[in-house]
């Protein structure tokens, strides 16, 4: 009986040691979960800021497109006027000068108009390219953040699943410990009962000898 009691106690100690290991693992997992939750929240804030930035950029680019559309209409009118008055309409402008000073003035004017048109066209093309590049970059970044948030959410779900399994295992260990504790208690009761019987038999034997 004493051997059974010792064996049961050893099993209880083993269960308690396993329980401590499980608790340590649960603590570590909780820290990991908190880190992932914090990272997830951080990424979500980044995504919110990015979406706001995207909206502002698109609004600005939309306004810019409107301005450039007006510019394109103006340039189209100029081209139409040049076509209407002939391919050499600028020569007519120069020819309208009455003297050398007027000629120089008209030349400076035409050159300024040409440079302005060229600069505006260049600006239009540059802004169009900038819009396309910016839109693609922001869309790519938002897609990347979306994948990251989904990945972190999946990791949280997996860790929560493992944590539930660990808690179930801990409950099982508690149940086993309780079972072994009851077992040891029963063995101790049996041991006491046997001891009492032995003492009773010894007393009876001693009484018979004295008689």
Provide the fold topology.
Blueprint (H helix, E strand, L loop, with lengths): L1 H84 L3 H7 L4 H111 L1
Helix pairs in contact: 1-3, 2-3
Describe this protein's structure.
- This protein has 211 residues and is an all-alpha fold.
- It has a single domain, classed as Helix Hairpins, CATH 1.10.287.
- The chain is built from three helices and no strands.
- The protein has helices at residues 2-85, 89-95, 100-210.
- Helix 1 packs antiparallel against helix 3 and helix 2 (89-95) packs across helix 3 (100-210).
- The chain starts with a helix and ends with a helix.
Short description:
By secondary structure, the chain is mainly α. The chain contains three helices and no strands. The longest helix is centred in the last third of the chain and has 111 residues, at 100-210.
What distinguishing features does this structure have?
211 residues; Helix Hairpins; coiled coil
> Could you say which overall geometry the principal axes of the C-alpha atoms support?
rod-shaped
Task: Figure out the total of helices.
Answer: 3
Uncertain regions spanning at least 5 consecutive residues: none
The secondary-structure class comes to mainly alpha
- Taken together, the total number of domains comes to 1
CATH-derived topology: Helix Hairpins
- CATH architecture tag: Orthogonal Bundle
């Amino acid at each position: 009986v004493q051997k059974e009691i010792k064996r049961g106690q050893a099993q209880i100690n083993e269960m308690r040691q396993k329980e401590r290991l499980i608790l340590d693992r649960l603590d570590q997992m909780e820290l990991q979960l908190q880190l992932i939750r914090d990272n997830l929240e951080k990424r979500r804030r980044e995504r919110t800021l990015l979406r706001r930035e995207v909206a502002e950029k698109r609004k600005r680019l939309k306004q810019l497109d409107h301005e450039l559309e007006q510019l394109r209409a103006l340039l189209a009118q100029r081209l139409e006027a040049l076509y209407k008055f002939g391919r050499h309409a600028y020569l007519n402008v120069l020819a309208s000068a009455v003297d050398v000073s007027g000629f120089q003035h008209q030349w400076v004017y035409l050159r300024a108009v040409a440079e302005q048109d060229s600069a505006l066209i260049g600006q239009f093309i540059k802004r169009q390219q900038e819009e396309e590049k910016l839109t693609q970059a922001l869309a790519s970044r938002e897609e990347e953040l979306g994948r990251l948030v989904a990945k972190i959410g999946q990791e949280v779900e997996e860790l929560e699943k493992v944590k539930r399994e660990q808690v179930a295992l801990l409950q099982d260990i508690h149940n086993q410990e309780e079972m072994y504790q009851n077992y040891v208690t029963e063995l101790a009761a049996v041991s006491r009962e046997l001891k009492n019987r032995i003492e009773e038999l010894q007393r009876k034997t001693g009484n018979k000898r004295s008689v």
